[in-house]
Amino acid sequence: MATEALFCCDEAQARPWLDRLDARARIVAALAIVLCAVAIRSPWVLLAGAPLLLGFALACGLRGGEILARLAHAEGFLLVLLLMLPLTVPGPAWATLGPLEFSRPGVERAVMILLRVNLSALAVLTLLAGLEPSRFGHALARLGVPEKLAHLLLFAARWTELVRQEARRLHDAMRARAFRASTSAHSWRTLGHFTGQLLLRALERAERVDEAMRCRGFSGRFALVSDERFRARDLVFLAGLGCVLLGGLLADRAA
């Protein structure tokens, strides 16, 4: 089974420089950037951090077109915020367009949300999107996340692909019978049968997996085994990132 990226459903890409880092260091770094982006109140500091984070993403092997394509998924929601917040947040008018009045606090709040979301998404995309789900789950467990949550993530990462394979087989069978989706009653009935069959096959597969795990002595806990070690390069990476984030926080206080 092809391993998949965390951030989206594309295959994980090899990023030699980042892949040498411990997964825990990458998770901590992403979390630190997100928290720092939320804590900073100056839009100019956030705007200055955007090219730095973008340059870091490009240095890690991401392509500009790929970054824009991934961020485009969040821009639709942010566009709605940019239009609605200036109209709904009370305050002095920033601009008027006929009967519409855009408030200055609403514009400022929308811009801050836009910058914070994009910086956070870019940090997660750069640091976590290339992590295999199994590696990500093991790293979370070693960071102290409850084992049940880590196990749930590991199961979901594997089970999503199995359900997708079942859905693909059912879809191929429907296409072999010349099925074409439409708004007719027959089409809706067929799609209902498709959904029911998919759920039944997933349930049957889950029962077989449960029996196989019990035969192998599964007692409710996985042995989370990982050969990753926290090395000097991880410490240097986190220390450098900490200095940059501290500089951003100090600049924000001075602004």
From TrEMBL:
> What's a GO biological-process term for it?
cobalt ion transport
Under which name does UniProt file this protein?
Cobalt/nickel transport system permease protein
Q: Where are the transmembrane segments?
A: 46-65, 77-97, 109-131, 235-251
Q: Where in the cell is it found?
A: Cell membrane
Q: Which CDD domains match?
A: EcfT (cd16914)
Keyword Cell membrane among UniProt keywords: yes
Q: Tell me which Pfam families the record gives.
A: CbiQ (PF02361)
What membrane topology is annotated for this entry? Multi-pass membrane protein
